[in-house]
Design goal:
Helix content: 55-70%
Number of strands: 0
Structural class: mainly alpha
Shape: elongated
Radius of gyration: 18 Å
Order of helices and strands: HHHHH
Number of helices: 5
Largest sheet: none
Length: about 100
């Protein structure tokens, strides 16, 4: 297999980033990260550990850790459990772009 030059690599990377599949995956990863960050901030503001939040939400600590790191797209059920454990209101909706 021939070695790719930096210029070829950069061009190929730019092309890939323009595909609908890449854009969708990027938006999903960004959303997962933002949700995890929000939960971590609320948890830390309450002075709770991940283990404490996990107990309150009926989850395992490693699941909270993964969620806060943005590792994977959470289900609505998971978001609802976390909202209840944090005594927060879960809002899901659409906004105009």
């Amino acid at each position: 297999m021939a070695k790719m030059t930096q210029e070829e690599f950069d061009r190929h990377s730019a092309e890939v980033r323009e595909t609908p599949e890449y854009q969708a995956a990027y938006r999903a990863a960004k959303l997962a990260y933002e949700l995890g960050k929000q939960v971590r901030e609320v948890r830390e503001a309450r002075g709770w550990t991940q283990a404490e939040l996990a107990t309150r939400a009926g989850m395992k600590q490693n699941a909270i850790s993964r969620f806060e790191a943005g590792d994977g797209i959470p289900t609505l059920q998971t978001l609802d459990r976390l909202a209840a454990a944090l005594d927060a209101h879960l809002t899901v909706g659409f906004e105009a772009a």
